[in-house]
Specification:
Length: 311
């Protein structure tokens, strides 16, 4: 399996422009004979990094923050719309699997009026295979995203092996990890704002624990992507004329023994291609650790999972 990691800066809160870029990247990835293309956390249409460096992000009833959220909402994706159908069509026309992180909304019915931090996994035939919403928004994300459910905690069988995915700090939720390990992942996609040191640690832990390959995906955002009207913390303000990267990529690939297949790629606004080893390449690693097999104690521990979709 050849993977294309999109570590290219999204056009923040510009849905049409992001879809146009997405079409370009999918076409290029197919020309490079990639089998799967993956985009980072909330790539569609931009991770709200301003929550961590805009000084008034948490102010109650603050007009610039409400305006920023409103802009996100209007440029988020709804699976019932023609915008989402365009993504399905891209996958089918190119014959390529797509995994994409997105700001998702429900326009009508139960659950409407909220934003969700979601992952869509789409088949090369243009079918939505999995739709996972982040279980617990991380820290300041609680200001903008609602809580997900257990519906998407599953793997997808492909001709390349079983693939699964989680978002950001879900990789520090022990029971969530165990549910996914029980699904028997061969290739796990970990979506992050950017893959800094602690996120690398979490990704390597996940690969070693689950005895699977982990494709850890970061993204790029500049200071100028901050919504208008929000004041940036003094320590983050650059020198005059500079527009620094606030999210710096760091995409990497870890093997089931915890070693790097691809070292973290920082400050690179690009598409990263990688040929993956066969899923059986590290089978022997399960001899001494199989957390869903002989290193599990079902007579001692029971794990019950609610996979119902509520909205």
């Amino acid at each position: 399996m050849k993977i294309a990691i999109i570590q290219k800066r999204p056009k923040v809160n510009q849905l049409e422009a992001c879809l146009a870029d997405m079409q370009e990247y999918v076409t290029e990835a197919k020309q490079q004979q990639a089998d799967l293309i993956v985009f980072g956390e909330c790539w569609l249409c931009g991770y709200a990094a301003w929550m961590d460096y805009a000084s008034e992000a948490g102010y109650w009833d603050h007009a610039p923050v409400k305006d920023a959220w409103s802009e996100m909402y209007h440029n988020s994706i709804d699976v019932q719309t023609t915008h989402f159908q365009r993504i399905l069509d891209m996958a089918e026309e190119a014959g390529i699997y797509i995994i994409i992180g997105a700001n998702e909304k429900i326009s009508s019915g139960p659950g409407n009026g909220s934003l969700y931090n979601s992952i869509f996994t789409i088949s090369k035939d243009g079918a939505l295979l999995n739709h996972h919403r982040k279980l617990m928004p991380t820290y300041t994300e609680k200001l903008i995203h609602g809580m997900g459910d257990g519906y998407g905690l599953k793997t997808i069988d492909t001709e390349h092996g079983r693939i699964g995915s989680l978002i950001c700090w879900e990789h520090w939720m022990p029971l969530t990890r165990q549910v996914m390990h029980d699904e028997g992942e061969d290739y796990h996609f970990a979506l992050w704002p950017y893959v800094k040191e602690m996120h690398i640690i979490a990704s390597r832990q996940y690969a070693f624990e689950g005895r699977c390959f982990v494709i850890s995906v970061g993204q790029m955002l500049r200071l100028s992507d901050t919504p208008q009207g929000l004041e940036v913390k003094a320590k983050e303000i650059p020198k005059e004329g500079e527009d620094p990267w606030m999210l710096k990529g760091g995409s990497c690939i870890i093997q089931p023994d915890g070693s790097f297949l691809l070292e973290p790629q920082y400050d690179n606004d690009e598409i990263i291609y990688q040929d993956m080893p066969d899923k059986e390449a590290f089978t022997g690693e399960k001899m001494n650790l199989a957390v869903s097999g002989h290193y599990q104690r079902p007579d001692v521990f029971e794990l019950k999972v609610n996979k119902k979709r509520y909205y």
